[in-house]
Amino acid sequence: MQTITVSTNAKFPAALALRGLAVPPRPQTQPDDALFSGGVRRSVAKGEEVFADGDAADYIYKIVSGTVRSCKLLNDGRRQIDAFHLAGDIFGLESTAEHRLTAEAVDDVVVLAFRRCRFDSLVQDSPALSHQLMTSVIASLERAHDHMVLLGRKTAQEKIASFLLGMANRLAPKADRFDLPMQRADIADHLGLTIETVSRVLTQMMRDGLIKLAAAGRTIVLQNRMGLQELNA
Amino acid sequence: MQTITVSTNAKFPAALALRGLAVPPRPQTQPDDALFSGGVRRSVAKGEEVFADGDAADYIYKIVSGTVRSCKLLNDGRRQIDAFHLAGDIFGLESTAEHRLTAEAVDDVVVLAFRRCRFDSLVQDSPALSHQLMTSVIASLERAHDHMVLLGRKTAQEKIASFLLGMANRLAPKADRFDLPMQRADIADHLGLTIETVSRVLTQMMRDGLIKLAAAGRTIVLQNRMGLQELNA
DNA sequence: CGTTGGCTTGAACTCTCTCAATACGGGTGG
DNA sequence: CCACCCGTATTGAGAGAGTTCAAGCCAACG
Which of B74, B133, B233 sits opposite A75 (nearest CB)? Predict the structure, then answer.
């Protein structure tokens, strides 16, 4: 744990130095962007950590592009992915002085990083910001609640159906086709299944005409939203 | 859903009326009690709802005594208990206007209820309160994260071991003996198991000398904390 | 064109669930 | 004070969803 902490902390200043004085391109404007003007842009390569379990929680992050997974590990290697964060999402807030989970780049990622101390003082000054932040954390909590129902009480089929509909909603709200950024192992560790079960359920759904798979299983086409919704329980 | 909403909303003013002008006895003083001075005391009998899924989220609650379970239901009756709240815990904080889960009294409960709107303005005025509240929500979120690991990746034995150690910590931090306020069905729905599995694992732990059971299985004596800790993963 | 990483498929196994019977305990009424 | 009851917990036997282990496949890449 110590080694991980050190290595990641060491990595971060390096990234800062690299991009040092570059002016961060203005991301698409959203209600809470006021919060996030002036953050430091940081690129994280696929598979690299944004922060690790045990790291000092000095920064809060907002995703510019790419996908981040936040996960917990059991000592024997079992993994649970609590959530996937997509462009626009805020993460890293969920902690005390030290992070209690690891955030890794699922694909190549660009984030904006904000010093937490500066942030805290900002929050002190602005009740509006405070409120926004609170809302963001509470939203995370509600997603966590939904995910607990999924993990504790849904069948493999239902888990996959929920997952596909949820990702479709976030990745391509209008369309019926989208590309999953993560691989089967990530999906499995998010849903509390094995990769084999994920694969089997997906092929069965394909046979049942609910979905179509393409591009090595990464592209999903929803052919029967209704059918999936029924499985969604 | 409508019927539940109405009935519970109707219940609440009644409770207020009943206890209307009674001066709430001052609960044991804690750091964040400033937040909760002036709340309305409300008793909830075992099995009754504090609020239901779909109710207007007008109040925030702090437990004076007793145990509350907050749970979600699937349309076919499957249930997931997200958390048990004990004396001193805050619950009912939502980002939306409506509750997204149901809070029920596990045993006879007394809570303090606070109008959310009044609360919000209080928070506006006091950064300190805001910070305390934030801390409380973040703590909930971290417990949720831990629980997701449990639900998604732990075996029945490990789930029960985690649960017992956790409850021991909260109910009797020093002692090795404590009474579970909830029944097997609640434990099962909290851990993503069936009551039979809960019972079987407990019996096995008893045979293994890890615990002792008494009082119809409600009293637990930890005989081998180390052994449980090892199972805890 | 061989290697690599990720995905799929198959067959056997096992942990947990399901269904069903039995036991326990606290409260009530005779 | 005992007998009965009802809700809750335990125990048993059989079934099944999902896992495990192992092999095969496919596309990307050097």
Answer: B233
Over residues B180-212, the pLDDT tens digits come to 999 999 999 999 999 999 999 999 999 999 999
Contacts of A80 in chain B (CB under 8 A): 148-149, 152-153
- Which B residues between 138 and 197 have a beta carbon under 7 A from any strand D atom? 183-185, 195-196
Angle between helices A195-207 and A184-191 (to 10 degrees): 100
Buried b (16+ CB within 10 A) or exposed e, A63-84: bbebbbbbbbbeeeebbbbbbb
Q: How far apart are the first and last CA of chain B?
A: 40
As given in the structure block, the two tokens for residue B80 are 């997931």
Q: What's the pTM?
A: 0.84
Phi, psi of A91 (to 5 degrees): -145, 170
Contacts by B118-125 with C-beta closer than 8 Å and gap 24+? B119/B60, B120/A131, B122/B35, B123/A127, B123/A130, B124/A127
Which are the contacts of B146, defined by CB distance < 8 A and separation ≥ 6?
A72
Per-residue pLDDT, A155: 97
Q: What is the pLDDT of residues B116-163, one digit of tens each?
A: 876 667 666 776 777 777 888 888 999 999 999 999 999 999 999 999
Closest CA to A50 of A76, A27, A84: A84
Q: Do A233 and B79 touch (CB under 8 A)?
A: no
| Helices B156-171 and B184-191, axial angle in degrees (round to 10) | 120
Cβ-nearest to A130 among B74, B82, B130: B130
pLDDT level of residue B36 (50, 70, 90 thresholds) = low
Sheet architecture: strand order including A79-85: A49-51, A102-105, A68-73, A79-85
* Widest distance between CA atoms in chain A: 57
**Hey, what's the torsion of the CAs at A176, A181, A185, A186, to 10 degrees?**
-100
Question: Token pair of B106, please?
Answer: 């596990």
